[in-house]
Amino acid sequence: MGNNILLFSLAPSQAWLQVVLLIIGIVVVLKGADWLTGGSVGMAQRMGVPQIVIGLTIVAIGTSMPEFFVSLISAINGTPDLAVGNIVGSNIFNALLIVGIAAIVAPITILKTTVKQDVPVALLASVLLMIMTLDQHISRLDAAILFVLFIVFIGFTLRGAKNGQNDNSEDTLKQLMPMGKAILLIIVGLVALIVGSNLFVDNASSLARSLGVSDAVIGLTIVAGGTSLPELATSTVAAYKGNSGIAIGNVLGSNVFNILMILGITGLITPMAITGITMVDLAVMVASILFIWLFSFTKYRIERWEGIVLVIIFAGYMWWLL
Question: Which pTM value belongs to this model?
């Protein structure tokens, strides 16, 4: 397993047990992300941080935590294809499957700022990753560039939201989460993320090797699908409740975070040699954002039939991959 972050493998020898532990790993990671986000929001509200800032930073980063921990631990444990495959796969899941399903549930109305600002940033991040991986390597310099762009992106996002007023009146403060509970949730959430990610990565890697499937393909499919569950749940519920702006914003924000923040930090900690991620995988990731851009340009809406097209493209890519 390479130099495992927990110093021992969490994968048993039986394949059926590996599948069970892989699923348990996903559940623990998702709960961990939920606790960490809840605790962080509670702490931020206690400290008087405006709602809009919490939404744009803590909640957005919170739904990207499963991808972050799974990719980081994959890279540290010597499976960089799993780490990068997880990010590329998650972004494809987000743009094709999640936006597709959300649009089928209810046509998505898109804000002009999303079309003119958020989609181009997501496209730029995707193209940049594609260029950086031409030499099949993400160096510390590549990672530093990604992370600096992430800081710039956060700066612009927060500056655009500076009109968000602080709504922590005395009545609200009385209903806030106690600081002790917030800190406990953050600690428990982090522990769950680390243990769940190790459980998930170890068993996914062992399963891949026993089935003769590459780390890259496992990363692009099972791992990417598992870590994209928070985005799928958030966006589908948002679309069903008629908050379609949240659905698309969540997906685009997550795609930018995945590339700039996750690969930025992971690559700074441990440079990655990538052998199994092909130009086809990266091209599908870039094309998925282009499709969203193309569809949203028409009437600032993604219609049901366009959602069906996105889901069909996703199914075709999965069929090609497997």
Answer: 0.82
